[in-house]
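sorry for the late reply, my laptop died twice this morning and i had to redo everyting from scratch. anyway the thing you sent over, i finally got around to it. pasting the sequence first so we're on the same page, its 371 residues, then the predicted structure underneath. double check i copied it right bc i was rushing
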Amino acid sequence: MNLYGNGLVIGKFYPPHAGHRHLIEAAAAESDNVYVIVLGTRFESISRADRAKWLSAEFETHANVRILVQADDCPVDYGSDEIWKAHVEVMRSALQNAGVAKVDAVFTSEMYGYQLADAFNAQHVLVDPDRSEFPVSGTLCRDDLNAAWPHIIEPARQGLATRIIVVGAESTGTTTLTRALMDHYRSRYPTIGDVPEYGRLRTYEKLDELRSLNPGAGVEDLVWTTEDFDLIAKRQNALENAAASQCPLVIADTDSLATVLWERRYMGADSFGAAEAAANLPSRDIYLLTDHEGVDFEDDGIRDGEHIRADMTEWFKEALTAAGHSWVLVSGSHERRLATATTIIDLILEQRSTFTSPPWAKRTTLTGATA
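ok and here's the structure:
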């Protein structure tokens, strides 16, 4: 039997991390119901909705945890009774809107929790105030997202990762550019993960299977199915998401949207094996489309699309535009392509790693470090 009926957890969750998860889990273990209020201001660069979505995904198996979202643009002044009242009433209204009339326990890792609990006539439960179990804070995450990445909850990592997707027709330099970009950024992002083109790997697998029965078979003898493209698209998504889990920068050599076009190339416009996976892609920051012009076609034994390279480049332009994606056609020499790509990626990384806060935002200091 739980100690409390309704537990309350509040926070910015900017972004949500392992310490937040520990706090909510502690509340869930001692309460029949836990209400988590995501309090965010208009001055922060991650939306309240995203933070709530990530927390909801993290706790989807916890039936007694409910995530609430509430705007709170009131300044913070712990010495002002009037300002304190303003914050409490925002929380109280959020709870009442969710049908919660009474709070039995307030769970925090902060000393202000006693005052907050008093405001709700509830018990205060202090959880890991020294951050000894989980030495992480929102401040630490915002100061150095790369270093804090392992401490951020998995759904937030998927949402916060910067995703650079390199696509293009056959033999247009996509893999060459992808590898060069990974080499370029590896010193800044040493945990960056490889996201290879699974369709190429599947081609080798199918060719090996066919040659085990017919040693003289070639790539032109392969028979593709909608099931193949369903598998390729799902595996491509999985590879990309695995890379996002381990590093805040993802540079992928193709994706499942491209798989849709390869399916069109081999199966015709009425085949939709890859469609489901391509319809559930995480947000992309930019697509780099490698131009076919100025690149010699290299026959590596599994390529057979020289005649359709120009058409496929147009297919990519049409598909990316129709889906509303940001994309850049990279042309010219390898050096020129790399320079174009790094110029835009550097700007994206600067933007994505900058977290805005209102001037009254409090910085959390962990023992032995500012975080």
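Residues 4-154+359-370 form a domain with the Rossmann fold fold (CATH 3.40.50.620).
thats about all i looked at so far, will dig more tmrw
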